[in-house]
Amino acid sequence: MTTADKARAVLELELCGKLADVGGAFVKTVIPAEGCSVTELFAMVARQHPALAPSLGGGRIRACVNEAVVAPNARVMPGDEVALFPPVSGG
C-alpha cells in the first residue's frame, strides 16, 4: 500500500429518492482518511460520479450522517453511515 492509499478511504453512500434513480441505491466514493465536510463530500461525489453532479450542485440535497441530518460544514469520517437525499414535497 502506498502513502497515497493510506491518505484516503472508501466511503459507501446511500442515495435516496431521485438520486437513486440516477446513481443507484449505493455509490462508493474516495475521501481523505482524515475526513471532509459535507460540502467537500458533495464535490468529490460529483467528480467521481458525474451523473450525480447536476443534482449535487444545486444546493438542495441534504446529508444524513450516522442517522442525523447535518449541516454542510459537518464532518464526514471514514466508516460513517451517510445517506444523501433530495427535498421531499407532498400534499
Supply database-style keywords.
91 residues; alpha+beta; 5-stranded mixed sheet; two-stranded antiparallel sheet; 27% helix; globular
Describe it for me?
The protein has a 5-stranded mixed sheet with strand order 2-1-7-4-5. It starts with a helix and ends in a 6-residue tail after the last strand. Helices cover 27% and strands 33% of the residues. The chain has 91 residues and is an alpha+beta fold. β4 and β5 form a beta hairpin. The protein is globular.
Rg, Cα atoms, Å: 13 Å
Please tell me what the overall shape is: globular
Low-confidence runs (pLDDT<50, min 5 residues)? none
**Mean pLDDT over the full residue set:** 90
Element-level helix/strand string: HEHEEHHEEEE
Please report which band the strand proportion falls in: under 5%, 5-15%, 15-25%, 25-35%, 35-45% or over 45%. Answer: 25-35%
Please state the structural category: alpha+beta
> How many β strands by DSSP?
7
Task: Please describe the biggest sheet, giving its number of strands, its sense, and whether it closes into a barrel.
Answer: 5 strands, mixed
- Spatial order of the strands in the main sheet? 2-1-7-4-5
Count up the helices: 4
Helix share bin: 25-40%
| Separation of the first and last Cα atoms | 53 Å
